[in-house]
Amino acid sequence: MNSVDEHTIQVLRRLVEVCRETCDGLNTAAERLEALGLRDLFLRYAAERAVYSGELRAQIFALGGNGDKSAGFGAWLHRGLVHFTTTAVLQDPAALLNRGERGEQAAVEAYHAPLPPALDPGTRALIRRQARGGAASHRCMKLLRDSVLAEESASPSPAL
Questions:
Q1: What are 32-59's pLDDT values in tens digits?
Q2: Quick check: pTM over 0.85?
Q3: Do 22 and 81 touch, CB atoms closer than 8 A?
Q4: Is 137 exposed, middle or buried, given 0-12, 13-18 or 19+ CB atoms closer than 10 A?
Q5: What is the DSSP letter of 92?
Q6: Which residues, 6 or more positions from 105, have their beta carbon under 8 angstroms from its beta carbon?
């Protein structure tokens, strides 16, 4: 395997990890947001990320890499921190939507990181297509969050 393929595989592995984290977060949010009628939407986005992860792993294998290598200690630590902080917001739909929007923003940024210049056209097209899908779900997530926040701010506060 040449160095271009190795660098490409590193980029793809990073995106696989982003898809896995996003999928996990969306599944968790789907469980908690059923009352707002958002469960199916979040499950659809989670399934989309699972498909993206599979496509990326297939591309890693096609380039001669092993798709099961871990992203490392930093990713493990990040997942633990996300799990810990998510537990605090699970009961608040607005906070959960806010967290979801930030997660989607992070995924969009990961897909827009600089790509290797020698990236083959098929891999580049795959990443761009997935980036467009992620950007669309981010826009939707942002609108949902803003809508819930607007409703909350319009509601009268309970009397003390």
A1: 777 778 889 889 999 999 999 999 999 9
A2: no
A3: no
A4: buried
A5: -
A6: 138
